[in-house]
Amino acid sequence: MRITVLGGCGAWPEAGKSCSGFLVEHQDFRLVIDLGYATLPHLLEHSAPHQIEAVLISHGHPDHCADLNPLLRARALNDAPPPALPVYAPPGELDAVLALDRPGMLDDAYDLHEFEPGERIPLGPFDITTRLLPHSRTNAGIRLSADDQTLAYTGDTGPEPYIADLARDADLFIAEATYAEQVPRDLALQLSSAREAGENAAEARADRLLLTHLWPGSDPQPFIEAARRSYTGEIAVAEPRLVIDLA
C-alpha cells in the first residue's frame, strides 16, 4: 500500500502547501481520502482525474473537501467524461461543496454514498471501518486495511478513548495535530494536539505516526517533539509529495 500526502495544513493552505488530502494506492486501485483546499494540483502530479476510482471524505469542512469540486469539474468537462466517481461521506457533509455549481452540472460526475460513522465500507481492495469521532460537525475516523496492511486516520477530532482502538497496531497512523502541546479551551473538544497524537499512537502500538492538520505557518519541530514524549516510533509531518510505502 502506498500513501502519498497531498497536503497537511489545517484551516487554510499556506504558500506552496495545501490542506488535508491523501492518495492511497493498492493493487492499481486509487483512493483519495479527503480533498481540502489546494490538494487537486498535487493530486494531478500523480494521477489523471479519470484514474481516481473513489473518494472518501471524513467530514464537510472545506479544508477537507473543497477540492472535490475541481476534481469533479475536471472529470465532467472532459471531452470523454469517465463514469461517475464513487464518493463516500457522512450524511449531508458534502451538501455545500456539491452545490457550488449550477444545478445539474456535475450530477453525472459523481455517485454519492452516504454512510453513518460506525459503518463498514468494502471498497476495491480495501476493507474500511469508520468510527464517529468528536468534532464540530459529523466526522468519521477511518481504519483502512488490505493484505495485512493497515492505515488509520482521524480526520479532525477532539479527545476520545476510541482513537487508540481506531489505530490499534496500524502500520501508519495519520493523526490530526492542529496544535503542538495544548488545544485552546474553546476548541478542546473539537481538535487535537501533537502531544495527544503521540499518546494515542503509543497506546495503539502503531508502527508509524504522521502528524497532519498543523496550523498554517507552524514550525513542525515542536510538534514532533511533543509527540515524541510518549511515542518512540517513527514520526513525520504531512507535507505535499511525501510518499510512504507500507510493507
Principal-axis shape: globular
Give the ordered list of helices and strands.
EEEHEHHEHEEEEEHEHEHEE
Poorly predicted regions are: none
Helix and strand composition category = alpha/beta
Mean pLDDT: 98
How much helix is in the residues?
10-25%
Separation of the first and last Cα atoms? 7 Å
Total number of helices: 7
Overall number of strands: 14
**SS strand fraction:** 25-35%
Structure description:
By secondary structure, the chain is of the alpha/beta class. Helix content is 19%, strand content 30%. The protein contains seven helices and 14 strands. The chain has helices spanning 39-44, 62-65, 68-76, 95-98, 162-166, 194-204, 220-228, and strands spanning 2-7, 21-26, 29-35, 54-56, 85-89, 110-114, 120-123, 126-133, 139-146, 149-153, 172-176, 208-212, 234-237, 243-245. The strands form two sheets. A seven-stranded mixed beta sheet has the order 6-5-4-3-2-1-14. A seven-stranded mixed beta sheet has the order 7-8-9-10-11-12-13. Strand 11 (172-176), helix 6 and strand 12 form a beta-alpha-beta unit. The longest helix has 11 residues, at 194-204. The radius of gyration is 17 Å and the shape is globular. The mean pLDDT is 98.
